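Operator note (shift B, R.M.): manual run for Expansin-like A2 requested after the automated queue skipped it. Running by hand, logging everything below so the morning shift can see what happened. Input copied straight from the record, untouched. If output looks odd, do not overwrite the archive copy; leave it for review.
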Amino acid sequence: MVLFLCFLFFLFSSATACDRCVHQTKVAYFSQASALSSGACGYGSLALSFNGGHLAAGVPSLYKDGAGCGACFQMRCKNPTLCSGKGTRVILTDLNHSNQTDFVISSRAFMALSNQGKGQDILKLGVVDVEYKRVPCEYKNQNLAVRVEESSQKPNYLAVKVLYQGGQTEMVAMDVAQVGSSNWGYMSRNYGAVWDTSRVPNGALQFRFVVTSGYDGKWIWAKNVLPADWKPGMIYNSGVQITDIAKEGCSESECGDGSWK
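Run finished. Output pasted below as returned.
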């Protein structure tokens, strides 16, 4: 953890800090959103309900070994004839293995880049030039939640999938303990948004998370999440919402001119 915080300090001390950097790339699309929902983040069919189906696969520098899962990005196409100035928002649910584009997005999101009535025209292009930036994820009336994975088995193994992570953050650590106990045990990122442990405390369970926030990291406590009789396949409300914003280290040109809201 100390090394992680030192890295963040170095990053922001060597670059201009702003809420979000504006990047230039090309974007392609998948014809089937299900290709993204079954991706590396592990959201499965749940992803189809995220963000109106505006989903994205991101390159490794955005996927970040799973820490980028659930991140939200605003993007707009740079073709003035076809594209709207506002663009659309996508949520990262998969890893993009292509080195041709930073993102591959769902066809629904791809069409949303266009001006009204131009959706089919932009689909015919297949690939478009865009600019994009990281933006906070917003889940109205929805707290951070965990889904107990089917592979979980009392008392030897617990795997949970983190859902509805708000704000502009990345989850970099997760611990679990019995409710009322200070004997915390660390969980490991299995893959994507899935964390697990083979040391499962008895009884009802609480969690604490470290998320990126501001210029470093921040602890988030969820004090009573899983009941003592937790069951695989169930989704449990954490009772907390994450609204923090992690600063990015950008060049002055990447910070943008403030015209794109």
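Quick read of the result: The helical segments are 2-13, 34-37, 60-63, 107-112, 119-125. Confidence is low (pLDDT under 50) at residues 1-15.
Leaving this for review. - R.M.
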